[in-house]
Structures are given as C-alpha cells and as structure tokens.
Amino acid sequence: MKGYLVLKNGDVFPGQLLGASSATDVHGEAVFFTGMTGYQDVATDPSYRGQIVVFTYPLIGNYGISDVEQEQSEEWQPRALVMGECSSDGYHYQSKETLVSRAENAGAGVPILTDVDTRALVKRIRTSGAMEAVITTNPETVTWENVTPIEEQELVKEVSAQTTETFGSGDTHIVLVDFGHKKAMVDALCAYGAKVTVVPYDTPLSTIEALDPDGLLLSNGPGNPKQLQEQLPAIKAAIMQYPTFAICLGHQLIALAFGGDTEKLAFGHRGANQPVIDTRTGRVDMTAQNHSYVVDRASLQGTELEVTHVNVNDESIEGLAHDRLPIRSVQYHPEAHPGPSDSRHLFSSFFRMIAEEKEVNVHA
Ligand SMILES: NC(=O)CC[C@H](N)C(=O)O
C-alpha cells in the first residue's frame, strides 16, 4: 500500500507501507539512526518510544530477526520505522522471522514505510532539526491538532517496569532503576557477576533500602529528562547513598539532580560510531548512542559534578563524575546493542567503584 511520511513543516516523503496498522495515522518525532546494523535492537529499545526512526543505511532487515540476542524489550518501541529498502529475506537468522513478517504480524501496530528517499529525508532533518511527523496513507487529511508534543508525553511511565524483577545470581547486588532499560544492560551487569533487581522508576527510597543493594544503575529511557522533575529529590537521595552508575537518560537525571541543566540537540546522536574521549586518560572509545538531549556545560559551574568524557565531534558532554561521591555517568551506551562494545570496561569500573566503597566502609 502507498504510504507517506509528512513532516510538520509540510514536506511529504512517499513510500510503501508494511505492517498491521498501516491504515492509521501515526504521530511521532522523526529522527535518524546512522548505524549500518542493529535495526532489531533499535526497534525494541524503549528509548525510541514516541519516535519515528529513519535508517540512513539503505538496506534494512537483511540479516533477519533473532529470537532473543538482539531483542532489547518485549515490544516494538518506535511509533514507526522508515527505510530505503526492507529485505524480505533474513539471511543470518534464516529459520526465524524477517522484518517484513514481523511488521505484518505486529500486534504492537508499528508501521514500516519502505522505498523512501531516506537520503533526502535525513538531509531535511539535519537542516531543520528533529521534527514531528505523521505516517499516513493520505497526506491531505493530516492534522496536527490534539497531538501532544513528544516533550510533554509521559513516555517513561509507559515503558518502565510495573513490578520488581530479579535477574542473575551474582554476589554484587545492583538495583537497576528502570526508566526504560535495554535488556543488554541487565545482561552486561550479570556478566560482570551481578544479581540485578529491576525496579519501577518511581520506587521510593525506603523500598530500595529494603533491597540492600551494593550499587544503583540508573537506566536509559525515552523523552525529555525534565519530565521527571518531580522524581529528582528521590533520585538524588538514592544516589547519594549508594555507588551509582548512570547511562543516557540516567546521566541526564544526575546532572539535573545536582543542579545542572539539559538542552535539546538539533537532531541528536543516534548511531554506532560516535567518538568519545576520556579527558582524564586521553583514551577514545567509539560509542553507541541514542539521544536528543545533552547536559549543558555552563550549567555545571558551581555544582559538585565534573566532566569526565567529551564527544570528539561536537564537544558535547558525554560523562560526569561527582567530585566526592562514587557517582559516575555516561551519555552513551557501554552495553552497546547496537554498536561497538569498546566502552564495556565502564561496567568493570563500576564494580571496582563498588568494591572500593565496601573497603572504605569496612575500615571506617
Ligand atoms: N537513550 C536514552 O536514554 C535517551 C535519553 C533521552 N530520552 C534523550 O533522548 O536524550
């Protein structure tokens, strides 16, 4: 069926619609992802909730869909996927589903718009910025009334765990505060010897205390971090009490909790090759990224936070450390999925930080 992506500025990009809910108009924020692989990880990453993801790589779906390895959550998360060409053969995961069959059977109702001039579309987003968009079968009838802008949607509430769940059986107990975590994060923690308890984003401090964690992980998640303003005092109280590592949305929340500010990038960083330098060691990692917002450097003046990592391309802030407490955060994704795992060592630094803290407490 013929379909269209209509940008809020009026530009229309035609294509072919696949998927269960192809007849319905779907609103979202049009953003682009530059990785050559990782489409399944992207399609299931809760950070993409509310967004229409345009893939810059022209051929998507060619290695198939895995049962579990690439799956980051149980649902398809973006509002829609847009691509140049959608492969109907899953080459690597041969006996499994393909992207086409997944879209066609998608109970979640995530349409895929293929055969789109994604090059032109991405150039438009680069010049005009990430923008609201609609996937539709009839561009004439598109309306922007009664649509809540993504900044005002309570997306974390939609994706956060409803109940507490425990994974792994290691000796180090990590409580993962779930703003919309990716499964790869739990897997990475378990691989380093953790037992992980995933708790809803608004879990009170007393419940966290009752779980007696060795450390906290504040996860990634969708939307504007300022949506969680009300949670900041509780987040601050918790992270001041336990060694904490925070990723992406979690990193932004740490900045906000300590009096810093965040701002929105024109079109964000979404891909698998963002170079990040550790300003203390000079080491550069190629990183997996997926974010619209960044911590504002000037806002950190006078706070207890120090910048530890910087993006080599645009000098935006990529990592923070508390000047006194064992609190570290990064804007990028050390758990990868999709993208390189160069920065997986940050998980071992987290476990080292926890061990050091235990030492200090033993001798205190
Ligand atoms: N991956 C994430 O956690 C994204 C954080 C936040 N929603 C942003 O877009 O900046």
UniProtKB/TrEMBL annotation:
<feature type="binding site">
    <location>
        <position position="293"/>
    </location>
    <ligand>
        <name>L-glutamine</name>
    </ligand>
</feature>
<comment type="similarity">
    <text>Belongs to the CarA family.</text>
</comment>
<dbReference type="Pfam" id="PF00988">
    <property type="entry name" value="CPSase_sm_chain"/>
</dbReference>
<comment type="function">
    <text>Small subunit of the glutamine-dependent carbamoyl phosphate synthetase (CPSase). CPSase catalyzes the formation of carbamoyl phosphate from the ammonia moiety of glutamine, carbonate, and phosphate donated by ATP, constituting the first step of 2 biosynthetic pathways, one leading to arginine and/or urea and the other to pyrimidine nucleotides. The small subunit (glutamine amidotransferase) binds and cleaves glutamine to supply the large subunit with the substrate ammonia.</text>
</comment>
<dbReference type="GO" id="GO:0006207">
    <property type="term" value="P:'de novo' pyrimidine nucleobase biosynthetic process"/>
</dbReference>
<dbReference type="InterPro" id="IPR017926">
    <property type="entry name" value="GATASE"/>
</dbReference>
<keyword id="KW-0665">Pyrimidine biosynthesis</keyword>
<dbReference type="InterPro" id="IPR029062">
    <property type="entry name" value="Class_I_gatase-like"/>
</dbReference>
<feature type="domain" description="Carbamoyl-phosphate synthase small subunit N-terminal">
    <location>
        <begin position="1"/>
        <end position="136"/>
    </location>
</feature>
<dbReference type="InterPro" id="IPR006274">
    <property type="entry name" value="CarbamoylP_synth_ssu"/>
</dbReference>
<keyword id="KW-0028">Amino-acid biosynthesis</keyword>
<comment type="subunit">
    <text>Composed of two chains; the small (or glutamine) chain promotes the hydrolysis of glutamine to ammonia, which is used by the large (or ammonia) chain to synthesize carbamoyl phosphate. Tetramer of heterodimers (alpha,beta)4.</text>
</comment>
<dbReference type="GO" id="GO:0005524">
    <property type="term" value="F:ATP binding"/>
</dbReference>
<feature type="binding site">
    <location>
        <position position="252"/>
    </location>
    <ligand>
        <name>L-glutamine</name>
    </ligand>
</feature>
<dbReference type="GO" id="GO:0006526">
    <property type="term" value="P:L-arginine biosynthetic process"/>
</dbReference>
<dbReference type="GO" id="GO:0044205">
    <property type="term" value="P:'de novo' UMP biosynthetic process"/>
</dbReference>
<dbReference type="GO" id="GO:0004088">
    <property type="term" value="F:carbamoyl-phosphate synthase (glutamine-hydrolyzing) activity"/>
</dbReference>
<dbReference type="InterPro" id="IPR050472">
    <property type="entry name" value="Anth_synth/Amidotransfase"/>
</dbReference>
<dbReference type="Pfam" id="PF00117">
    <property type="entry name" value="GATase"/>
</dbReference>
<comment type="pathway">
    <text>Pyrimidine metabolism; UMP biosynthesis via de novo pathway; (S)-dihydroorotate from bicarbonate: step 1/3.</text>
</comment>
<feature type="active site">
    <location>
        <position position="335"/>
    </location>
</feature>
<feature type="active site" description="Nucleophile">
    <location>
        <position position="248"/>
    </location>
</feature>
<dbReference type="InterPro" id="IPR035686">
    <property type="entry name" value="CPSase_GATase1"/>
</dbReference>
<feature type="binding site">
    <location>
        <position position="47"/>
    </location>
    <ligand>
        <name>L-glutamine</name>
    </ligand>
</feature>
<dbReference type="InterPro" id="IPR002474">
    <property type="entry name" value="CarbamoylP_synth_ssu_N"/>
</dbReference>
<protein>
    <recommendedName>
        <fullName>Carbamoyl phosphate synthase small chain</fullName>
        <ecNumber>6.3.5.5</ecNumber>
    </recommendedName>
</protein>
<feature type="region of interest" description="CPSase">
    <location>
        <begin position="1"/>
        <end position="173"/>
    </location>
</feature>
<dbReference type="InterPro" id="IPR036480">
    <property type="entry name" value="CarbP_synth_ssu_N_sf"/>
</dbReference>
<feature type="active site">
    <location>
        <position position="333"/>
    </location>
</feature>
<keyword id="KW-0436">Ligase</keyword>
<keyword id="KW-0067">ATP-binding</keyword>
<feature type="binding site">
    <location>
        <position position="223"/>
    </location>
    <ligand>
        <name>L-glutamine</name>
    </ligand>
</feature>
<feature type="binding site">
    <location>
        <position position="221"/>
    </location>
    <ligand>
        <name>L-glutamine</name>
    </ligand>
</feature>
<keyword id="KW-0315">Glutamine amidotransferase</keyword>
<feature type="binding site">
    <location>
        <position position="290"/>
    </location>
    <ligand>
        <name>L-glutamine</name>
    </ligand>
</feature>
<keyword id="KW-0055">Arginine biosynthesis</keyword>
<keyword id="KW-0547">Nucleotide-binding</keyword>
<comment type="pathway">
    <text>Amino-acid biosynthesis; L-arginine biosynthesis; carbamoyl phosphate from bicarbonate: step 1/1.</text>
</comment>
<dbReference type="GO" id="GO:0004359">
    <property type="term" value="F:glutaminase activity"/>
</dbReference>
<dbReference type="GO" id="GO:0006541">
    <property type="term" value="P:glutamine metabolic process"/>
</dbReference>
<feature type="binding site">
    <location>
        <position position="249"/>
    </location>
    <ligand>
        <name>L-glutamine</name>
    </ligand>
</feature>
